[in-house]
């Protein structure tokens, strides 16, 4: 198979972006190709984010991140990678570093429409697109989301949706991915992977990606937006509720003591909400709603 035909395998549009204020870096991508999230995106906190597509060179991900982590300017990173690759004309590459400097490459053999737009803190690129309107819509939507104060993951999703609405990949849709890193953003702070969602094969992968982000990731792992103080009345409610669910064996004393806290944390772990455990005498409002809903459902049975 010729390199030009191989390039047809990964018809893709993507965005790489940095939020310098929060230190977050991310990539969002859609392709008429299965499991695009396993091939195109990479990001490393404190270094940068990468999208390698068309005839994707997966080696570029680590090479680019290593260079950016060492402080090599992003344009120089792109220049070095492209110059060393004999198949560069079949490839696309988008880069952004932790300082918000971005760059993009489109090889001359990438199938039309192929191109990129580089802006402040982001780069969008695509190949086998309906037209340049896809990239223009992504760039404009991303910039508007920055002005609106949206978090990085939401900006990336909005850009992906705008690109699809403007025509997207002219072969259609199949898979999509969203990757965002931030220092200590991983599970229980164990690593830097804040969001890592993939839709590997779907007729509507971007819509499914948003559902996973909003209904799953943000529900279980999203930042707490409201805390409720546990006073005596709420402590009694928690004790009664946790007792009904089989997690608490003591009296409804109204004291949020060690036994009640342990029962609460056990129940939260059972419900996959351990990432929302809080110290002191407070509870995440989302967790409280979850508990009340579960008790109400138990009461209807």
Short description:
The chain has two domains: 3-220, Glutamine Phosphoribosylpyrophosphate, subunit 1, domain 1 (4-Layer Sandwich), CATH 3.60.20; 227-300, no CATH class. Helix content is 38%, strand content 23%. It is built from nine helices and twelve strands.
Question: Can you walk me through this structure?
Answer:
- The chain has helices at 3-7, 59-69, 74-83, 133-147, 152-165, 205-221, 232-244, 258-270, 285-300, and strands at 12-19, 24-31, 41-44, 48-54, 91-97, 102-106, 115-119, 122-126, 175-181, 193-199, 227-229, 282-284.
- It has 301 residues and is an alpha+beta fold.
- It folds into 2 domains: 3-220, 4-Layer Sandwich (Glutamine Phosphoribosylpyrophosphate, subunit 1, domain 1), CATH 3.60.20.10; 227-300, no CATH class.
- The strands form 3 sheets. It has a 6-stranded antiparallel β-sheet, with helices on one face. The protein has a 4-stranded antiparallel β-sheet with strand order 3-4-5-6, with helices on one face.
- A hairpin with a 3-residue loop joins strand 3 and strand 4.
- The termini are far apart.
- 47% of the residues are buried.
